[in-house]
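SEVERITY: medium
COMPONENT: batch folding queue
REPORTER: lab tech (J.R.)

DESCRIPTION
The queue accepted two submissions in a row. Attaching both inputs and their returned structure tokens so the on-call engineer can compare them side by side.

ATTACHMENT 1
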Amino acid sequence: MNKEELLELEESIENITKKAKEFGLDYYDMRFEICPAEIIYTFGAYGMPTRFSHWSFGKNFHKMKTQYDYNLSRIYELVINSDPCYAFLLDGNTLIQNKMVIAHVFAHCDFFKNNAYFGHTNRSMVDSMAISAERIRQYEFEYGREKVENLLNQVLSIQEHIDHNFRTKEQTMAQTTLQKPPETKYDDIWSLDKTDSPLENEQKKRFPPNPEKDLLWFIINNSKELEPWQKDVVSIIRDEMIYFWPQLETKIMNEGWASLWHARIMREIDLSVDESIEFAKLHSGVLQPSKTYLNPYYVGMKIWEDIEKRWDNPSPEEIERFGRVGGEGKAKIFEVRETDNDISFIRNYLTEQLVEELDLYLYKKVGHQWQIVEKNWEKVRDEIVAGMTNGGNPYLVVEDGDYNKNGELYIRHCYEGIELDIKYLEKTIPDVYSLWGRPVHLETTIDGKNVLFSYNGERNSKRILID
């Protein structure tokens, strides 16, 4: 961008800021930077500007940058959930592209700040990741790059298996601790009248007492194989995954929200005829439906618009059943923005009319052809929700950390109709073995049968479990 365009962009930022406030958006202070494609795609591949180095990020960069070079895809911006909020704009953008992106980013920041699922995220994660990356570089210097890289490979292969509700668990554990009597020489008196129930006795024998979803947390706290520095690396990746998790949970809501408000803001600011035409082309490109996947920008924006319309102008049936008085559309979408995630958003607000309007359907490969297999709106909605459960990742829990009374790790897949990728499983279970230090077992369901996969440090094996 030349100097004249930069001056106009600065003026546009002021106008967009004013309009965003008029619409009621509530966001952190914004910081905009214009960056070349190499920097934008590096940030996109790493996920953050200051993250540790790993070969998989370089692989992502090469793929994304190649698609950009061949004009197959384009990242217009990258926005960071932080306070202040950082937005990086592509220097190859036209002025009108940057105007739309800036309006889009303001809505993203509003969502980051106000959605309940982002409430626990570290708003200084840019600095935290820089410190973590420096620690990992120091470990590479002390223990060797190959050893650190192997550890990163192992942990990144299971990084999604955390418990994003960890704060609730920590609060529960803290309350349990607070309920204990004071530690004195008379403590034994407290237990004289106490008799454990059979369930409590069984829980005391089990390790962990209840199935543990947070596999990384369990390894950090119970692995006898890892050294302190290795546990620190695992905790770094776990903390970063906890930071990213709300973005997995709210992709449709977040992108739909940003698209809704960038459209409304852009319609309110002064644009020339040429700029209006270019914006219309850009906006329609962003909302272009796909035959093979859900476009989160398109589906999310349509649901937001439908919520606002139905609460502004309720039908006679909605007035009778729900007592809606009308004129509450804007208040309702701001309420949903604050309290929901994609699962509740789709389940509660994707209606039969919207499924028909958006032409949503389920399809699968039958023989050698892909065919539509379901258009019933409730089944379509439920299948979309099922695919979002646990961020779209398999739900695994640690059932036993002392399986066979030999310190072996027993993990159970909570099967909900979708089978595990067996090739990925057999390549990943040795990584868990390396982190745990003892044989690892994973129970899952294949073709309707319970199957146990095991790795003993030398080879994979599997056997069918008989009830």
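ATTACHMENT 2
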Amino acid sequence: MQSDAEKLFNRISFGFLLVGLISCVSLTDEVSKKESSSIYLQLGVRYMDLDKLEIAKENLQIALTKDPDNVQVHNAYAFLYEKLKDNQQASEHYERALTLSPDDWSVQNNFGRFLCDQGKYKQGLALLLLASSTQLNDRQWIALTNAGRCQLAINSIQSAKSYFEQALLLNFAYAPALLEMQKISFQNRDYPEARSYLGRYLMVGVYTSGLLWIAMQTEFALGSPAKAEHYQQLLVEHFPLSYEAKQLKPVLQ
């Protein structure tokens, strides 16, 4: 027969074992929720890429329910609300994400760009510069390009140009920065440079009506009517209803 001491010891041992098992189950359940949240986050982002916004929202809501403090879920949710034109909700989710992880460069970049779009240029630029300066950010050129666009919005052309140039030093073929530099070069009447940026952009980017309009006028300015007519034809073919295409007739008369 077991002594009272042995019985007590066994009960205590069983108690510790039970607590340990409960802790393991709780921990496993917590890990499972985070993993599940991550899966729904990826689905939400994928559906956003496909422009299926309602389905994206459903998946992000599930992700948030499973892990309310997931920084990237709030980050993605904010971006979704931007697409849905709900700036109040977008701002709230960006603020929550930044509170949860103040040094997250992805949140800094997205929130900074958003604030600049909302006319809060000083706050937005401050976040973008934080995002562009951290060594943890392996895509600093994105934040620098957004900083350049933020400066363009307040007509600070030289400052904007500096940010775009820094972005292109880090990524020679980053299309958004090349596009902005093409515009600035054209506005500055530096037509050879505008043509150069256009050539670099066309190696990695797609046509836009604005790009073809500037390309056409650049070639006219450089005395290359054949090239100008080529870009004019592309503009009419690809963007017949665009503002730029409607301006062709007065330009050519």
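NOTES FROM REPORTER
The CA atoms of residues 106 and 163 lie 18 Å apart.
No errors were logged for either attachment.
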